[in-house]
C-alpha cells in the first residue's frame, strides 16, 4: 500500500508529545526531555498508515513519508477523522509546521525553519507534514549542518499569523551533516501512570 496518504493528497510527517506524559526513548541518540506541548501527537508512516517504531532513525527527507496523528495508530485506521489534531481555539485561524530550539516553540521569530501557513477552517489539521526536509522557510540547512536537539511540530496562529495560540510538538535529535533524526513518542496512558 505504497504512499497511502500522498495519493489522497494528504500532507506528510512529524512527531510530538504531551505535557505530563512519561516519555519512551527512541534509540540511544534520542533526546531525554522536551518542552511542553499542548497535546499528544504520534508519528505515522505514510506508506503503511501505522505509527513509526519508537526506535526509528529517519532520514532528513523521509522517503516513506510520515504524518502526525493526535492518537496512537497501531493498525491501519478505517476512519481518519479521529486522527485530526485538536480543534483550534477561537483566536486561531491558520496552522504551520515548524522546527525551533527547545523552549522557543511559541516564539515564531525564533523558529529555525517552518512550512507554509494553512487555514484551519474550524478544524484541527488532518495528518500534517512536519519532517525536517519539508520545512523550507527559515534556515533548514543550518539545522541539518549543525544538528542538535530541537522541537518539531505544528503551531496554531492567530490573525496576522504573528502569535502562536497553541503548539503540538515533540523533541527531535538531529545528527549534524546527514540530518538523520530520532524522536520521542509518548508511552501509552496505562504505562505513563505506573
What helical percentage do the residues reach?
Answer: under 10%
Query: Which secondary-structure class do the elements indicate?
Result: mainly beta
Strand content: 25-35%
Biggest sheet, open or closed, and with what strands and sense?
Answer: 7 strands, antiparallel
> How many beta-strand segments?
12
Low-confidence stretches: 1-34, 189-194
Tell me the domain tally.
1
**Rg, Cα atoms, Å:** 15 Å
Order of helices and strands: EEEEEEEEHEEEEH
First-to-last CA distance: 37 Å
Question: What sort of overall outline do the alpha carbons produce when their principal axes are compared?
Answer: globular
**Mean pLDDT level:** 80
- Supply the number of helical segments: 2
